[in-house]
Sequence to fold (457 residues):
Amino acid sequence: MSAKTILCIGAGYVGGPTMAMIARQCPEYRVLIVDIDAARIRAWQSGEPPIYEPGLKELVAASLNRNLFFSTDVAAGIAEADIIFVSVNTPTKTFGQGAGRAADLQYWEKTARQILAHARRDVIVVEKSTLPVRTAEAMDRILRAAPAAVHFEVLSNPEFLAEGTAVRDLEQPDRVLIGGHDSESGRRAVAALVDVYAHWVPRERILTTNVWSAELSKLAANAFLAQRISSINSLSAICEATEANIGEVARAIGMDPRIGPRFLNASVGFGGSCFKKDILNLVYLCDHYGLGEVARYWEQVVLMNEYQEDRFVRNMVAAMFNTVAGKRIAVFGFAFKADTGDVRESPALRVCQALMAEHASVVVTDPQALPNARLELAVYGDRVTFESDPYTAARGAHAIALVTEWNAFRTLDYRRIYAAMEKPAFVFDGRNCLDHAALHALGFNVLPIGQKPLTHR
Ligand SMILES: NC(=O)c1ccc[n+]([C@@H]2O[C@H](COP(=O)([O-])OP(=O)(O)OC[C@H]3O[C@@H](n4cnc5c(N)ncnc54)[C@H](O)[C@@H]3O)[C@@H](O)[C@H]2O)c1
Fold:
C-alpha cells in the first residue's frame, strides 16, 4: 500500500492524542493535525501539549516532526489528505431551536464545506466527533455538491477514550467502531480505516457496523455510563436517610456479574464535556422522532446529576449551622475528574457557584486545572481565590469540600491541615476517597456521600 496522508481537523482532547497514537503506530503514514486555534497549534508544535494527559507528552515526542505535524493551514491540509478525521467540538446549542439540548453543528458544517472547497482527490471523511444519529447523511449531502471528479466517502468512527486515561485507552482500546455505507466504495473505505487501526489493535476488537449504528452507539455508551453514576448517586441519598452505607451497597450489588463493580462510586456528580451534552443530544433526538417517553427516561439521568450537585452544597450548609456566609471554604479539585486539567461541566463549577450564592469565601486548589478554573470563575472577580498549594488553601478555612479525586489529596498531612483551620473543621468528601475514620480521629467533622457523617459534639 502506498504511504497515506492522514489529516485531522481539530487539535483538542480527542484529535491530538488520537493522531499522536496513529502516528506512532503507523510510521509510514504522514499525520497532520490542523486547528483554527493558533495558540493550541503552537503548544502542540513546541512539544508541550495544550492539554494535560498522563503519557501524552512522551507519545507526541515520539513522532513530532517525524511523521506527526501540526498546522493552522486547514485548506492546505485538506488538499493533500487521503483520510480526513473530523474532530471538532460539537457543544450543546445555546441559541435558537433545540437550545440547551441539541448539538451545535456549526463547526461541523463549516468543516464539511471547507473539505468540499479544498479537496483535490478522493477522500475518506471520518466522523471522529460525537454527533447526532444521521449526521453523516447531512455531511454526504454537502459533499455531494462536489465536482464529480472527487469522491467523498463518509465513515463514522466515534472515539471512546476517557480523559485521564486517554493514552492507555488509545493504545489498548476495548473496541474500535467503524460505521460505513453498504456500497462498494463504502466497504473499500471501511477496509482502509480498518488497515490503519489493525497496525496495533487486534482485528477482533475492530467492529464494523452501518453508519447510523456507529453514530448511535457513542451516544448510547455515554448515556449508559452516566446512567450508572446517576443510579448509584440516587441510592446515596437513600443511604443518607436510612443509615445504609453506599460503599457497602455498591460492593454488594457490584459482585453480581450481571451488574459488575465499575462506575459504582457515589460522588458529587459526573462532569466532563461529553456525558451531559451527549445525553441531551439523545433526548433531543428522541423528541424529534416523537419518542417522548424515551426522551424523558434519559433526561432524568441529567436531572439526577444536577440534584446530586445541589444536594452536596445543601448538606454542607446544613452541617455548618445553616450558614456559610463569610466562611472560607477550600474547594479541593476543580477538574471534572482526576488526571486531567479539563474543567468542562465539572461539578466543582456548580458547587462553587452555589457556595458563592450563599456568600461563602471560596478558595480553589487543583494540581492541573487552576488556569482553566480561573477562566471559568473570572466573573466572580476577587470573591474567589486560587492556590496551587492545598495547605495554603486550607489555612483559616472552616471547611474542605473535596470535589476531584486527585491522588495528591489522599496523601496530604491532614493533621497539619486541621491545625491551621478554623474550628469546628469540616471535610465534605464528594468522592469518598479519604480515610474518614482517620480524619475524624484528628478532630474533623467528616461528611462523606451516602454514608453516616462522623461528627464531634
Ligand atoms: N473529550 C473527550 O473525552 C471526548 C471523548 C470522546 C469523544 N469526544 C468528542 O470529540 C469531539 C471533540 O472533542 P474535544 O474534547 O477534542 O473538543 P476540543 O474543544 O478540545 O477540540 C476541538 C478543536 O476543534 C477546533 N475547531 C473547531 N472548528 C474548527 C474548524 N472549522 N477548523 C479547524 N479546527 C476547528 C477547535 O479550535 C478545538 O481546538 C466532540 O464531538 C466530543 O464530543 C470527546
User: Anything to note?
Assistant: The chain has a mean pLDDT of 96. The chain has 18 helices and 14 strands. Residues 270 and 347 are 7 Å apart (CA to CA).
